[in-house]
Amino acid sequence: MTRKPAVAGQFYEASRSGLTDQVESYIVPDLSKESAVGIVSPHAGLMYSGAVAGAVYSRIKLPRTFILLGPNHTGLGSPVSIMSSGRWQMPTGELEIDEPLAVKLKGQAQLIEEDTSAHAVEHSLEVQLPFILYYSAKVKIVPLILMTDSLEICKTLGESIADIIRETTYPVTIVASSDMSHYVTDAVARPTDKKAIERILDIDPEGLYQTVREDAISMCGVVPVTTMLYAARALGADKAELVRYMTSGEVSGDYNYVVGYAGLIISSTAEKNG
């Protein structure tokens, strides 16, 4: 099955040349790159969040496969929905699904269900792909959409992902797709988002989950990020860096009604020293 673009011309430029130019405008050239256990990357329209996503992807070494975790905005599909075969088409190319890895993951975590309906029109993973394709069309993906509020599911899924990654003979990076605070003033978004970002920097999945709940932070991808942090912690990650934070007000000029965007890299110093 080929999954066609759902938000081309809305969230990003619909033509090959237009999208290439758009992504290139957000890429930071000539940066030293590092291996990432996981990243946090936003998923708004590129005109708003592209600078943050571009800053993150500019800093990481391309793995063999990206495991993509995104929140479910549509309400379609299962609590944890995977598409385990086929390819995702974009204006700038297409990416194949890492079918052997996806099948292993389904076998490892029984809570994962094959459900293409969750992926059909969901944008949270699609908006990551222009940045991946900018660097290579040979990278493979494993797409999962999450629609749950269970911390236990986050933990079980994250640790299952870690178990599968340990068995691979090639590099795998986990992408957690999330925007931060939604539709508040810039003055509210920044200190509120800082609370959540601090928990990510501590690689503290329980702390992030509780902070978002207790402070009513409208972070749409808290479940994907929490899941990624559980996996990263199980894989020995011990370093997290905030690459860039901004709000939509910096683009729109409207600071009374913003969405926050954070880009982070989670890594292992042991890997760098190894």
User: How much helicity do the residues have?
Assistant: 25-40%
* Through-space gap between termini: 39 Å
Can you tell me the overall shape?
globular
What's the CATH topology label?
Protocatechuate 4,5-dioxygenase, Chain B
Comma- or semicolon-separated keywords:
globular, 274 residues, Protocatechuate 4,5-dioxygenase, Chain B, three-stranded mixed beta sheet, 22% strand, single chain
Write a structural description.
This protein has 274 residues and is an alpha/beta fold. The chain has a single domain, classed as Protocatechuate 4,5-dioxygenase, Chain B (3-Layer(aba) Sandwich). The protein is 38% helix and 22% strand. The chain is globular. The N and C termini lie far apart (39 Å).
Write a brief structural summary.
The protein is an alpha/beta fold and 274 residues long.
Write the layout of secondary structure elements.
Blueprint: E1 2-3, H1 16-24, E2 38-41, H2 46-57, E3 65-71, E4 80-82, E5 87-90, E6 93-96, H3 99-108, E7 113-114, H4 129-135, E8 140-146, H5 151-167, E9 172-177, E10 182-184, H6 186-201, H7 205-214, H8 222-234, E11 239-247, H9 249-252, E12 258-267, H10 269-273
Parallel strand pairs: 1-5, 2-9, 3-8, 3-9, 4-7
Antiparallel strand pairs: 2-12, 4-8, 5-6, 10-12, 11-12
Helix pairs in contact: 3-5, 5-8, 6-7, 7-8
